[in-house]
Amino acid sequence: MAIKKKLSFSKLQKIRNYLSSRKQDRRKVGVLVDGPNMLRKEFNINLQEIREILSEYGDIKAAKVFLNQYASEKLVEAIENQGFEPIVTSGDVDVRMAVEAMEMIYNDAIDAIALVTRDADFKSVLKKAMEMGKETIIIGAEPGFSAALKNSADIAIVLNEEDFVDEMDEEQEEVEYNRSHESVPV
């Protein structure tokens, strides 16, 4: 049974060191990105950084970003420029991504599957990948990163965890400041 690790993106070097230490043989990695779920302004996700992190773990054999029909041409072009294959679907992005994940699970040329999403719907995909002997990596962002999803993968990477914690700390400090300066009725 693989040891589960939770890593913070702000510690990029630690991630690289950890993943490098696990690459006895170069693994063949398939990467699937849930575009509508992860490529949002509030997360500021950099696909090139995801590629670099996963390249430390193994050789990326397939890298795909799933988008809905409302994706702009500019976004599609940016994804292609990052070395990912954009897949635009008029249906449910999650369904198309799950089908692609199942194809990778049954592909002997892929050793590890990395899903970039926060969506708990992909928990069953991770479970099936593990049953078939694939290593699993989940990459997500806060807020809204499913705890069940993080705990279902061999490796879980939270991209903006430290930023999220800092924001929460700032909000808490502000609440405490406001409470300490409230007027007390006499």
Question: Could you walk me through the main structural features you see in this protein, from its secondary elements to its overall organization?
Answer:
The chain has 186 residues and is of the alpha/beta class. It has one domain (5-180): 5'-nuclease (Rossmann fold, 3-Layer(aba) Sandwich), CATH 3.40.50.1010. 44% of the residues lie in helices and 23% in strands. The chain contains eight helices and seven strands, in the order βαβααβαβαβαβαβα. The protein has helices at 12-21, 35-38, 47-57, 73-81, 93-105, 123-131, 147-152, 161-180; strands at 5-8, 27-34, 58-68, 85-89, 112-116, 135-140, 155-158. A seven-stranded parallel sheet has the order 1-7-6-5-2-3-4, with helices on both faces. Strand 6, helix 7 (147-152) and strand 7 (155-158) form a beta-alpha-beta unit. Helix 1 (12-21) packs parallel to helix 3. The chain is globular, with a radius of gyration of 19 Å. The N and C termini lie far apart (62 Å). Residues 163-186 have low confidence and may be disordered.
Structural class of the secondary structure composition? alpha/beta
Count of all domains: 1
Shape: globular
| CATH 2nd-level architecture | 3-Layer(aba) Sandwich
Radius of gyration: 19 Å
Query: What is the count of DSSP helices, taking H or I runs of 4+ residues?
Result: 8
Describe the largest sheet: 7 strands, parallel
User: In percent, how helical is the residue content?
Assistant: 40-55%
Pfam families: NYN (PF01936)
Organism: Archaeoglobus veneficus (strain DSM 11195 / SNP6)
GO molecular function, one term: RNA nuclease activity
Domain NYN: 28-159
